[in-house]
Design a protein that fits this description.
- There is one protein chain.
- The chain is an alpha/beta fold.
- The chain has 2 domains: about 250 residues, Metallo-beta-lactamase, Chain A (4-Layer Sandwich); about 150 residues, Rossmann fold, CATH 3.40.50.360.
- It has 12 helices and 22 strands.
- It has a 7-stranded mixed beta sheet.
- Strand 20, helix 11 and strand 21 form a beta-alpha-beta unit.
- Helix 5 runs parallel beside helix 7 and helix 8 packs parallel to helix 12.
- It binds flavin mononucleotide and fe (ii) ion (FE2) (2 copies).
- One fe (ii) ion binds next to loops.
């Protein structure tokens, strides 16, 4: 838990969480930070909180001393987003402080009652509303619904032009005590956070890519100088770097993504597996990089990260009880729910006597309106023959060429 000054009068209180699964199921091998902000005018507001992981909020309150803020000085609590990673401290805050006034969106008001039984002293605000803290500091609110829940809003400090967008522009990754800002981090650490942003995006934000693009439009209209998200580092030197990254990642929903192929496969007895290496070699021979994940060994979090960033996806699975190998079914279904649309794709795999994967795959593709463009599948009976493998190689090259062509077409449309 640490405090630091973002800009004069704006302080960050941050805690790193390391030993949980985020949202109950995403691995965070590098941890994640939870950021809360104190904004001082004549009045004082706290924006979002840090849920009671890691000994907070008590530790958080102890840190208030460092920035000369007393608990009784906090006049307003601003809730940008009701997900308990940011709002879970409210019970403890209430127990320590007693009454306080909450500013939140109309939709958050109902959730405040549902999650914490809070109904009094709640002021609802939305785009166009402001809160004057005095001393020239006016906070403006902007609805950014569905980034990541429907009630989400962003708060903008018009004095320092700092935006507090909560989950938007956030990332996984713990933040070091002395360098929680893009201007205090070396390039290699910024790139580390970029990779953590990519996995965070594909796991947490991907399904909301359209609302995210809408939110980015609103942020771009504000002439923002600092981006202070609820997770990850604060962007002071180059806030447009994380905006560009989020735009790029949101655009991957419709594709094209990077001209690369994610090969996602599972196998019980090694028959499907025999086709994986020939496939990977064929794709790479076309100069297209490949990211390979075996399921269920590779965690869904990493599979989604790869699929999100690749224009091409190859799916390998055997038939199991007249359907797809179940771990592959579950992964593909999740990919669909995350709205990875328009991928170039290929399916291959082994069966014993019947096949049956295609019907199930078609169902997932249709239900999620995925619009994937498949080259012809290769299914083989038992162990793949040399002919089966050369067909797999051929389809792999076709897939790689489609991926390259898509990249070319989209770069020429951008040039026009
Ligand atoms: C539990 C189980 C269920 C299976 N169900 C089917 C099936 O419904 N239809 C079929 O054609 N093959 C079925 N098979 C056979 C496998 O698809 C076949 O052995 C295949 O070669 C396995 O490929 P793998 O080694 O890549 O796992 C089943 C195998 C197992 C172990
Ligand atoms: Fe959230
Ligand atoms: Fe969050």
């Amino acid at each position: 838990m640490k405090t630091s000054e973002v800009v004069p009068g704006v302080y960050r209180l941050s805690a790193n969480i390391e030993d949980i699964l985020f949202e109950g199921f995403w691995p965070i091998p590098n941890g994640v930070s939870l950021n809360s902000y104190i904004v001082k005018g004549e009045k004082c507001a706290i924006i979002d909180g840090v849920c009671n992981w890691d000994g907070v909020p008590e530790t958080l309150f102890a840190k208030l001393d460092e920035i000369n803020v007393k608990l009784e000085d906090i006049d307003y609590v601003i809730i940008n987003h009701m997900e308990p990673d940011h709002s879970g401290w409210l019970d403890a805050f209430k127990a320590l402080k007693g009454e306080f006034t909450i500013y939140c969106s109309v939709k958050a008001k109902k959730l405040l009652d549902a999650f914490y039984g809070i109904v009094d002293n709640v002021v609802t605000v939305g785009s166009g509303d402001t809160l004057d803290l005095g001393a020239g500091r006016v906070l403006a609110f902007e609805d950014i619904p569905n980034v990541h829940w429907p009630e989400t809003m962003a708060t903008f400090d018009t004095l320092s032009r700092t935006i507090f967008p909560c989950d938007a522009f956030g990332s996984f990754g713990s933040v070091s005590d002395d360098a929680p800002y893009d201007d205090t981090l070396g390039e290699e650490f910024i790139e580390f956070f970029q990779r953590e942003t990519e996995r965070y995006y594909s796991n947490i934000v991907a399904a909301f890519s359209y609302p995210t693009l809408k939110a980015i439009e609103k942020v771009e209209a504000l002439d923002v100088k600092v981006i202070a998200p609820g997770h990850g580092i604060v962007w002071r030197r180059d806030p447009y770097r994380i905006i560009r990254d989020y735009k790029r990642l949101a655009a991957y929903s419709k594709g094209p993504a990077k001209p690369e192929v994610a090969v996602i496969w599972g196998s019980m007895y090694g028959m499907t597996e025999m086709a994986v290496r020939p496939l990977v070699n064929a794709i790479e021979a076309e100069g297209v990089p490949v990211r390979v994940h075996r399921v269920p060994e590779s965690n869904l979090s990493h599979v989604l990260d790869s699929v999100w960033q690749c224009s091409g996806v190859a799916l390998g699975m055997p038939t199991y009880e007249y359907k797809m190998f179940p771990p592959m079914h579950s992964v593909i279904d999740e990919i669909g729910k995350k709205k990875a649309y328009n991928r170039k794709a290929f399916r291959f795999g082994s069966y014993g006597w019947s096949g049956g994967a295609q019907r199930e795959l078609d169902k997932i593709l249709t239900e999620n309106k995925m619009n994937w463009d498949f080259v012809e599948p290769v299914e083989f009976n038992g162990r793949p023959t040399e002919e089966d493998l050369s067909l797999v190689r051929k389809r792999g090259r076709e897939l790689a060429r489609k991926v390259k062509l898509w990249a070319l077409e989209s770069s020429s449309t951008e040039d026009e």
